[in-house]
Write a structure and sequence with these properties.
Number of strands: 24
Largest sheet: 7 strands, mixed
Structural class: alpha/beta
Number of domains: 3
Number of helices: 12
């Protein structure tokens, strides 16, 4: 297209990749079009990050109320009102959605409602309308996947989208998959009182997480009453009245479990349907991009889940910013050296950088330090002493290779670790940086001293 196109940048998809790209382009003075077929905010805001954390907060409040007597607060007969909980979730989402709509309008971003289809390097089709633009960013996201087993589409077999629309609390729930999403829902529903069973085909839960942290969290889940079967291969789901019977193989044994509902938490697939007519090259079902988020089609970029690189909302936003800047003439490359993993369970899990088993496999000379939250004043005061901070450092330089946390507000604390890994900071840099007291971040400070010498508030490891 020529410079006479009405828009400098048009973005297909209004999720965390697309709307952040639109805002960044607007910040740089561009004329921006944002195409969204559903609601601004995408799956993250409406069917993922925000509604699940709203339910997690309800579960946290329930557990806190039951333990409140230990700190002198008596809450009698704390129970779950599932309808009210789901209404609170909807209000939380609606509030965030309203603020986003106002923000996009304030930035003077033109919003086109409908399904956007790429019909050429400089044009999009939205319904019957043709939108001309100089540059295009594809941010169409992903959708939940289902295992191709008999019965996977039966009523009551839910995706992570559908489980957020339940009207009644299930007494029992089977979760297929023990990745981040599966473990988050296991934490939430077990805390609310459901009997939860996890079936995972791999040898352990949470593959993206450090093996020691995952093993410790598996013990926590089992302590919360969750039944976990690893190396379990789902074979069939059968309807039995209002309930579902799952048949699965556990080694050479055939087993089964019956539940009210089943959650398919087996990942997401990139949404590429809108790209079929004049789309860029795909690789394993995802839009192939280079380090500048450029696709195989000139002046067409992609960001977020549709690239298949990291299906995380914050990575989508990061990529959206880079795609927008490059589309407007800047030259910036994506840097994935310090991508955090955040798992919103009870307690939380967060990590960045190398896992200990990776350091061993690469034969990197390293040192490990651990500091338990049970030795931390702030964690004790919060009544959440379970978990630890684990640092992995290069030896002898002390450079941070990995930070792994299981414990209260781990997803907030990990920011310090992400910055440390990104900038090449050392354990000494962390240990010589003052941390507020009492605070949860002191666990990182203490673990850093464990690399240099020994923690201050720990008699033994």
């Amino acid at each position: 297209m020529t410079d006479e196109a009405p828009f400098d940048v048009a973005i297909i998809g209004g999720g965390p990749g697309g709307y952040v790209a639109a805002i960044r382009a607007a910040q740089l003075g561009a004329r921006v079009a944002l195409v969204e077929k559903d609601r601004l905010g995408g799956a993250c805001l409406h069917r993922g990050c925000i509604p699940t954390k709203a339910l997690l907060r309800s579960a946290e409040a329930l557990l806190e109320s039951r333990d409140a007597s230990t700190i002198g607060i008596v809450v009698k007969d704390a129970t779950v009102d599932f309808g009210a909980m789901m209404a609170w979730k909807k209000r939380a989402v609606a509030q965030q959605a309203e603020e986003l709509e106002k923000l996009i309008a304030w930035r003077k971003i033109a919003v086109f409602r409908g399904e956007g289809r790429l019909v050429g390097p400089g044009s999009l089709k939205v319904g019957d309308d043709l939108v001309a633009t100089r540059k295009i960013i594809i941010a169409t996201g992903s959708s939940p996947a289902r295992l191709p087993v008999p019965g996977s589409n039966l009523p009551g077999v839910l995706t992570s989208d559908q489980i957020l629309e339940l009207e009644t609390m299930p007494e029992s729930l089977v979760i297929i998959g023990a990745g981040v999403v599966g473990c988050e829902f296991a934490s939430i529903f077990s805390a609310l009182g459901a009997r939860v069973t996890i079936l995972e085909v791999l040898p352990r839960i949470l593959p993206p997480v450090d093996e020691e942290i995952a093993r410790r969290f598996q013990q926590v889940l089992r302590g919360q009453g969750v039944t976990i079967h690893t190396k379990a291969s789902l074979q069939e789901i059968r309807a039995e009245g209002d309930r579902l019977r799952l048949l699965f193989a556990l080694g050479d044994e055939q087993q089964e479990v019956v539940a009210d509902r089943v959650l398919m938490a087996v990942g997401h697939r990139p949404c590429t349907d809108a790209l079929e007519e004049a789309g860029p090259a795909l690789e394993d079902g995802s839009v192939a991009v280079n380090e500048r988020l450029e696709t195989s089609v000139e002046n067409v970029y992609a960001a977020g889940d549709v690239t298949g690189l990291y299906m995380l909302a914050y990575v989508a936003s990061y990529q959206g910013i880079i795609a927008a800047e490059n589309a407007l003439g800047r030259s910036r490359r994506a840097d994935y050296r310090a991508v955090p993993t955040c798992v919103y369970t009870l307690p939380e899990i967060a990590s960045v950088g190398l896992r200990e088993e990776e350091a061993r496999a690469r034969r990197i000379s390293h040192k490990v330090s651990r500091f338990p939250f049970s030795a931390l004043a702030r964690a004790q005061l919060l009544g959440q002493p379970r978990g630890l901070v684990k640092l992995i450092c290069d030896e002898p330089s002390g450079r941070l290779l990995g930070v792994h946390i299981l414990g209260p507000r781990a997803t907030d604390i990990i920011g310090e670790g992400v910055l440390a890994v990104q900038t090449g900071a050392t354990a000494q840099d962390l240990a010589h940086t003052m941390h507020g007291h009492p605070s949860l971040s002191e666990a990182i400070y203490e673990a850093a001293w464990g690399i240099i010498d020994s923690p201050f508030h720990l008699r033994r490891l």
